[in-house]
Amino acid sequence: MNIETLVKKYDTDNLFSVLKNSYQQIEFAWKNSPDLETIKNSKINSIIVTGLGGSAIAGNFAQNFLKDELHVPLIVNRNYFLPAFANENTLVIASSYSGATEETVSALQDAVKRHCKVVCMTTGGEIRQIAAANGFPVVSLQEGFQPRFAFGVSFFSLLKILQHIGVIEDQTAIVQDVIVQWKKRGEELAADDNSAMQIAEKIIGNIPVILSASDYTDAVGLRFKGQFNENAKLAAYHNSLPEQNHNEIVPWEYNSTELIKAITIILSDSDYHERTKLRFEIISGLIKKSGCEILTIESTEKSFKLRLCDLLYFTDWISYYTALLGRFNPKEINFIHFLKSELQK
Q1: What percent of the chain has pLDDT over 70?
Q2: Three-state SS across 183-244?
Q3: In CA terms, which of 173, 190, 334, 336 is 20 to 30 Å from 149?
């Protein structure tokens, strides 16, 4: 069955087109010029990106993407409240695509009480209302997407905020390179018999166990796991090295394909610490002894930032094709909708 047939049968909302044209989200985000003058050059000693799900992952990705240049601590908060250290010198970036995420609304209200500096990223909802009532700047996100399919506009809007307020240098050159990259890759990965589809075919019938490296690719691993969950309705697991070597390495001594039908996916990069590379080599040997297949995914782009963006975009395609091959509509997240309806009662 070719891709066009699969898309027509299972992707009734044509998220295929959204994914293929994700580069346009980057263009939108980078052309967007929000008014952040009230925050620019002000004293900021910490940054908190508060959000959930697809609206939070941009913060994790920023931690990896900016690992060598961000000299202000940046954490991602996924809760109803902010950490105790949040104060008037903390920049809180409230990220909610819908503007209605109850945890993010609550955390934003906490930021108001703590007199934090605030920027909101949203398409509207209560988040925008709170921002208007308190005079907080709002970065308007491009509308019409599922939050997890809006990574391009979410991350690059966050990057634009960090650049505009002066905590990082100008990122325009790398952003333009990513636009070109995603446009080219979108064409490649939308064609029949592409490399993402080939990996998805191997995943069907298995539980993905994703291994990444802390501070390098762990945001991609976390994203990949979540995309398997939501798009492909597939249980998946993620851990990062070296932490994995201090606990999760042990079960591989006893696991076998008779106990759990798993497939290990290693996210690799040439910039990893040499000791981390050695750890991956050793753990790969141990996993293979259990009979588990290992797939290694690595980008060959010229710079770390480009490789990171390529890795995330490529793994998004893998999760999408895994959904279609599993005969699922990648849009449907019925249990999430049910949970929200129950919480509203």
Answers
A1: 98
A2: HHHHHHHCCCCCHHHHHHHHHCCCEEEEEEECCCCHHHHHHHHHHHHHHCCCCCEEEEECHH
A3: 173
State the CATH architecture for 3-177: 3-Layer(aba) Sandwich (3.40)
Catalytic site positions: 230, 246, 340
Reported pTM: 0.95
CATH number of this structure's domain 193-325: 3.40.50.10490
Predicted confidence (pLDDT) at residue 237 exceeds the cutoff of 70: yes
Look up tokens 């790969």; give the residue. Answer: 284
Q: Which two tokens stand for residue 20?
A: 């293929």
Q: Give the sign of the dihedral formed by CA 325, CA 330, CA 332, CA 337.
A: positive
pLDDT classification of 339: cutoffs 50, 70, 90: confident
Tell me whether domains 3-177 and 193-325 share a fold: yes
Domain boundaries, the chain: 3-177, 193-325
